[in-house]
Amino acid sequence: MEHDIFRPEPFAGTVFKATKGQKFGFWPYCPQNIVSSMADECFEMRPATPAQYLQRLHLMDQLSPGLNGLAGFTHLNGLFSIVTTQRWYDARNATWKEINTYLRGMGFKPVRSDAYDDPTRWFHPTQNIALFDVGQSNILICGDELVPIDIVPIIPDTFMRERLIEFMKEA
Question: What is the DSSP string of 12-67?
Fold first, then answer.
């Protein structure tokens, strides 16, 4: 986990999340030198830079406006840290069926995985947005609302876009 979470008292429904150590989450990478029919060999998750973490935060705000906010920067245990805010949800993890219905309803298409039965990567070809690390613990159900709290959205480069389209599932 890349965050320390702080819950202020009195609690007003928002928590502070601070990146810890040199961890800024993960960022998808698509090596151009790999020629494979295996989707999982074509997409790697590598440690993210602070700039990539901030880009992820920005794209999450486009997908779910107001979910996260940039609170600032600090030193935590002597290391640079990005501090964000996030609403706290009294919620449960989404099921794969709920995730599938939600993302397809937004225009995303699943991208095949060789290791998992359920897709952890999704792609919106007309908006050119890819979602990585999609899973039951990263999307919550709060009442009737699905809340993507910890997925990794990116705008893929041309090469990654081609690979995402190649591995998109039909129907």
Answer: -SEEEEEE-TT---EEEE--TT---S-HHHH-EEEEPPHHHHHHHHHHHHHHSTTS
pTM beyond 0.85: yes
Q: In the structure encoding, which two tokens stand for residue 36, read together? A: 């494979």
DSSP letter, residue 118: S
Residue found by looking up tokens 């009442």 in the block: 143
Segment 8-32, tens digit of pLDDT? 899 889 999 999 888 999 999 998 8
Beta-bridged to residue 44, according to DSSP, are 29
Task: Compute the Cα dihedral for 83, 89, 91, 95 and give only its sign.
Answer: negative
pLDDT tens-digit map of 69-87 = 999 999 988 999 999 999 9
| Cα separation, 15 vs 8, whole angstroms | 7
How is residue 84 written in tokens?
A: 């964000």
